[in-house]
Amino acid sequence: MAAPFSLPTTHRALVLDKIGEPLRVETRPTPQVSPGTAVAKILVAGLLSYSREIYNGTRKYNLPTPCVPGNAAIGRIVAVGADATRFNPGDLVLIDIFIRGRDNPSIGALSGVHDGHTEASKRMMHSEWRDSTYAEYAKMPLENCFPLNEKRLLGDPSDGGLGYTVEDLLYMLPQIVPFGGLRAIGLDVCDRVIISPATGAFGSAAVQVALSMGSSVIAMGRNKETLEAVRGFFASQFGEDRIQAVPITNDVQQEVESLAKFGPADVFFDISPPQAAGSTHVKSAILSLRHSGRVCLMGGQREDVGIPLVNVMRNDLTIKGKWMYERGDVARVIQMVESGVLKLGKDAGSRTVGRFPLENWKEAFDLAAEHAGPGERVVFTP
Ligand SMILES: NC(=O)c1ccc[n+]([C@@H]2O[C@H](COP(=O)([O-])OP(=O)(O)OC[C@H]3O[C@@H](n4cnc5c(N)ncnc54)[C@H](OP(=O)(O)O)[C@@H]3O)[C@@H](O)[C@H]2O)c1
C-alpha cells in the first residue's frame, strides 16, 4: 500500500477531448512536481451552475483541449517542488484556479475553465497548466495553493474549532469572487450597497460578504420568492435593518422609486449572467447612487449595457470592471473565515445538494445547472 502522501504512478482524471464532445474518465500518469509547483490530492472540487455550458460550447469559453477541466478545490499537498518554503505533505489547502503570469501578474486565466483573454494567457494555459482539478491529483503553481488552518476550520467547537466539513470550505470560492469586486471598489463599513442579481451563487454570496464587511445591502432579483428567501435568511443573521430587497421588474422608473425608499446607495455591484442581457437593473442601480458613488461591474453580459452618462458625469460616479480577484483577496477571505467573521456551512445558508464521482460527470453538470440557487453546491469527490 502507498504511504499516505506518496504519489501513485497513475491516477484517474476527467478528460475533455474537445469542447462539445462528451467527457470521459481516463487513467493516466500522475502529474509530477517541478520547481514552483505542488501536487495535491483533490478531496473535493466545485462546479459552477454553468459548467455544462462551458464544456458543451454554449458559453463560448476557450480552453486548450484535450485537457482536464476543473474548478476551485480543497486538497491535501502530496508533493512540492524543491524550491517550496511553506508546504509539507499532508497540508490542507484551498486550490485557486486563477493562474497568473509569474512575470506579469496582469495576465490571468482560469485553469480548467477559460484560457484568458490574451495571447500570453493562452500560451501559459496551453502548455504548463492545461490540466485542472477534476482528477484524483492536480499540479498547480505553489502560489495557487492557500494553506488552511485545519484544526480551526474542521475542529470540534468544544476544542476551539469551527466544526466545518471539507465540503463547507468550498463555499469560500463564491465568497472570494465578490470579495474581489467589492474590495476593488473600496466597499467600506456602513456603505449601502446594491447587489444585483442577488439570487444566484455569486450574488447571494456577495450579500453575505458585504454584510460581513459591515455594509448594509439592497438585494435585487427578478425571482421574488428567491429574493425574499435571501433577504429573510440574511436578515435573520445580520438584522432586519441591514438588508432590504427590491425586485427587478424591468421598469426603470419603478425600480428607481423602490430603491429610493432606502436612500441613496454608496455602491452598486453587478454580477449578472449573460442571460440577463437587457435587464434594467444596471441602469436603475446607477441612477440610485449618491454623489461620488462607485460601481463594480463583474457580470458576464455579452451585450453592451446602457449607462446613464449624464448621471455618471453629474454625480462624479466611478465605474470599475473586475475579473476575479487579487491574490491577497484569497488570503483575506480565508483569514475572515478562520477568524469567524465570515461564516460557512449552515450559518452561510450553504449546503451540498449533490456529490459525484468523476464518472458521473453528466449527472453532476445537470444537477449544478438545475441547482443554481443561493448557497447550493454540487461537487466532485474524485
Ligand atoms: N467577473 C468575474 O470575475 C466573474 C466571476 C464569476 C462569474 N461571473 C459572472 O457572474 C455570472 C453569475 O454567476 P453565478 O454562478 O452567480 O450564476 P447563477 O448562480 O446561475 O445565477 C445567475 C443569476 O442571474 C439571475 N438572472 C438570470 N437571468 C436573468 C435575467 N434575465 N434578468 C435578471 N437576472 C437574471 C438569476 O436569477 P433568477 O432566479 O431570476 O433566474 C440568478 O440570480 C456568471 O454567469 C458570470 O458571467 C463573473
UniProtKB/TrEMBL annotation:
TM helices/strands, residue ranges: none
Name the UniProt key words of this record, in alphabetical order.
Answer: Metal-binding, Oxidoreductase, Zinc
Q: Which Pfam families match?
A: ADH_N, ADH_zinc_N
Domain Alcohol dehydrogenase-like N-terminal positions? 35-149
Q: Which InterPro entries match?
A: ADH-like_C, ADH-like_N, GroES-like_sf, NAD(P)-bd_dom_sf
For activity, the cofactor(s) needed are:
Zn(2+)
Classification via SUPFAM superfamilies: GroES-like, NAD(P)-binding Rossmann-fold domains
GO MF terms listed in the record are:
metal ion binding; oxidoreductase activity
* Every Alcohol dehydrogenase-like C-terminal domain range: 203-338
Provide the family line. Answer: Belongs to the zinc-containing alcohol dehydrogenase family.
What PANTHER family does this protein's entry cite? NAD-DEPENDENT ALCOHOL DEHYDROGENASE (PTHR43350:SF17)
Name the UniProt record assigns to this protein: Putative alcohol dehydrogenase
